[in-house]
Amino acid sequence: MFWKWCFRLLIVFVGLWLFLDLGSRLGAEILWFQEVGYLQVFLLRLVSRGALWVLAVGVSAVYLLGNLALAQRLKYPQSLKIAEVREEEAVLTVGLKNYLSPPYSQLNTAKVSDGRMRPFRFRWLLPLALSLSLLAGLILVHYGKIAVSYWYPAFNNNIPIITPFRLETIWELGRQLTAQVLSVGLIVGVAIAILIYSQFALGAIALSLSVVFGTILFYNWTKVLQYFFPTSFNNTDPLFHQDISFYIFSLPLWELLELWLMGMCLYGFIAVTLTYLLSADSLSQGIFPGFSSPQQRHLSGMGGLLMLMVAFSYWLSRYELVYSARGVSYGASYTDVNVQLPAYNALCVVGLAIALYLLWRTIFWRSKSQSRRFIFYGLGIYLFLIAAAGYILPTIVQYLIVQPNELQREQPYIQRTIASTRQAFGIETIDSITFNPQGNLTTADLKTNDLTIRNIRLWDQRPLLETNRQLQQFRPYYRFPDADIDRYTLETEISANRPAQPPQTTNTANSESTERRQVLIAARELDYSAVPQQAQTWINRHLIYTHGYGFTMSPVNVVGTGGLPEYFVKDIGGNNQGALTTANEPIRDSVPIGQPRIYYGEITNTYVMTGTNVRELDYPSGSDNAYNTYDGLGGVTIGNGWRRGLFAMYLKDWQMLFTRDFLPETKVLFRRNVKNRIRAIAPFIKFDSDPYLVAAEGSPAFPGRNNYLYWIIDGYTTSDRYPYSDPNSQGINYIRNSVKVVIDAYNGSVKFYIADATDPIIATWSKIFPGMLQKLSDMPTTLRSHIRYPLDYFSIQSERLMTYHMTDTQVFYNREDQWQIPNEIYGDKPRPVEPYYLITSLPQVPFEEFLLLLPYTPKQRTNLIAWLAARSDGENYGKLLLYNFPKERLVYGTEQIEARINQDPVISQQISLWNRQGSRAIQGNLLVIPIEQSLLYVEPIYLEATQNSLPTLVRVVVAYENRIIMAQTLEQALQGIFQPELTPEPPIIRPFEEGIPPG
């Protein structure tokens, strides 16, 4: 009795704990979304996900458990003896049967003999029951792994979500899962449990699968919402002539329903069949009496629903041919269109006919139907058609008809793949221009392009960060996680010789006193993990170490004393200039600083409480520290009421309940990592890996205290459902840079702006969440001037362009013009060239602009073949330009220039000398810079100690045409290239040897 009460108390305690945990999560999330201003977004997601979970769990449980309950009523009783089973074969006499069990024999004979099928003997019964049990285990494990992969994405990244019902699919699933020992053990364990404890095991699996189906729909809420708010692409696929929106918004939902309903119907049919097969103690007696007439009717109805799902699966498989990997190009190939598609049509029609017949027969049941055997014949023929028409025949056609004449057969389908891939990745709008470097650059051209010269990047992110960590961190708990390249319009007394932006948008009055400078900006964030272990207390973690402070800004092309970088903005408060130190008065007037506290950043992964009795550490100042009290808009008020308990439960931080440092105005700031912050608000958008900091005036779009630090993050709408589009290594075959997100580094405010209004996917999300996404024109001009073409998007497009710049089908088939990204030497090891930002002017463009560039070389060659540029300024934002170099002449590639640098006897000797005595030379990024109708190559060389690294810029290498020079500064190197000293070489004087007459 005592243990029973203990067990009941444990159940009550666990239930109460789960209730409080779920309640605290819900309450905290509601308060947080209310803080950031997206409560309606959260509530719509919550309602839609909850409704989908309840719908899937409810329908699945009712269907599976209802059919199992009906099967329990119709199954044979365990007391049924083997004699009654053999009565169907007339093996024993009526007298013997009456002798064994006269009353039950008469009752049971009248009950089960009418319309009953022939018995199954043990040699057929055991393999059938075991196979069905293993298949049930396979279904449970497969769907369970899908659900677990949603909870823990790293658990298994190769889970196939789309599983049409085909023999090869089940075989492939079995092969994949049985390759894992744990999966094999689970499948076998489930099968054994079914054979021994059939009623309990089948019911438990039904409940488990119901929850799993609900979880799958719960995590796929985006597909359901998109289905009801589609946006037309105004473009159709070339095979079925459906609008692309059907594949992006409708087909994913149909595939999701197929995944759910197929699993439900298949398991339901297996579970009911096993319930009947294992009744009457059949395994122990070695024989199954045969399915009775009610059992046959029940199985006929469930079989009809299953075959209906099979027909539906093959109907979907027709459209999935546009994602076929068969053939030389992605999408439906010759074999798919001419063989596989008719096969799927036939299998769909035949499957539908069988399903309708089974359902008709279930409704109008006749226990002694003569057509019963035709059902088995029809199913056998159908299985043969699946194997023959769905697999064997396409394979034969592919090998015997297509491959001997592959180019001719596949040519129209290759063209479809090329066109669709270029559309899906946004590379069909690239302006392709022939660029023939002339090699006639002069000193006058350099003066004309002085803004380009003054913005040639000599400082890479890595050496600058290393230098920052040595010179600008000041305390171990500060860290510079990243340095970002941007451009700022700075006041100056020097005017450029050409405008720095399109003439139609240039302000003539200001152009003489300002210029655009390319800079590296790095946020000084607080890294609590670097606080000494002895000081990592609860108060320090959550009340004192709350924020980072300030940033550094360095021009990319200026070298200071000792080869160190110069700083436009540096240091921390404690001087007469305010919060941060600026290089001069024009910089102070150009770059807004204010009080640059960073409460929301890239590494702010702790939650903090502000407005408490404890002062927050602001920044170190001499022998003491400066302190601050947060007065921003961020955070949720917790005070001393019920909210304190709610957040203590939500954060699992029970010290919040007992601390005496909280005040009525105390706030908790959590989810402060900017990436986590925006993903929580908009999980349906894929975000760039590199948020970048901007110092600009953001009001009035961002109300609150005068803060000038903002994070900008690019967001992408992606899909893997674009027909005929060849996916990249991440499985993406459609992408658009549709969103720009701005986060206030002090207040935590988040704004989403639509960057590409032509994208149908972002238009659909605007319909689903009205008011969430704003127009890009609503972004403050000061912030909009800092948006840039995103690096991740550019990298994906440039990777696809290496193959899909070939638009001729024969050239594409032969892969004769395949490109690759060249290598460069960075440090002392080769690595692929990364896209880089520059302020320069494009050929035949009369103004400098902020560009993202990447060179290409031919496959297995090292000379430049093309050069891709993405524009980031003004009305030209988002435009791509491809400059093709002539194939009949040599244009030096990065690897050729690197080889020339390392083969130069003077440069090589100097680098070898530096790589001794506890130091090493680092060769920086090799930049290919277009100037007028020529290409200039620039590579910085840094020197760092093997210990206590403090990289310094020691040399700059410049290469132009056949000339190459290394100097201490860029100016000296350019002067050496374009103004060589014409000093004649000294004559060689040979000594006169005595005894040998001259001549």
TrEMBL record:
Tree of life domain: Bacteria
Sequence segments annotated as region (Disordered): 494-514
Keywords for the protein's UniProt record, in alphabetical order: Cell membrane, Membrane, Transmembrane, Transmembrane helix
Presence of keyword Glycoprotein: no
Residue intervals passing through the bilayer: 51-71, 124-143, 177-197, 204-222, 259-278, 299-316, 343-363, 375-401
Compositionally biased residues, Polar residues: 503-512
Cross-referenced InterPro entries: UPF0182
Location in the cell: Cell membrane
UniProt-listed Pfam families: UPF0182
Protein topology in the membrane: Multi-pass membrane protein
Record-stated family: Belongs to the UPF0182 family.
PANTHER family (UniProt xref): UPF0182 PROTEIN SLL1060
Protein name: UPF0182 protein H6G83_28245
